[in-house]
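Summary for the lay section of the report: proteins are chains of building blocks that fold into shapes. Here we show the chain for Quinol monooxygenase and then a coded description of the shape we predicted for it.
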Amino acid sequence: MTTIAILELTLTAEGVAQAPAILTETLEATRSFEGNLGCEVLFDNADERHVSIVERWESVEHDDAYRAFRATPEGASRLGGIVAGRKLTLYTVRDDI
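The coded shape description reads as follows.
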């Protein structure tokens, strides 16, 4: 079943200006990862430090493999240097409703 991952980020004040370039770089690898069906980046109109990334995955197993990759030295990104806080929520798309 399709899985939606929503990653909510709180950027550091210093990271706001760097965010577009670092997100572009980071999401290039995300979008090319096996099982990724697309990503969208949402910038909060009321709070420039609040960014949400909506990722669509073929399955929870694909998302799990991606998260495991990001936890390795090879999968690490520069995103951690501009993030003060994060929250990840996974959703299952129910096609039967």
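Put simply, here is one thing we learned. Strands lie at 3-11, 36-43, 50-57, 83-92.
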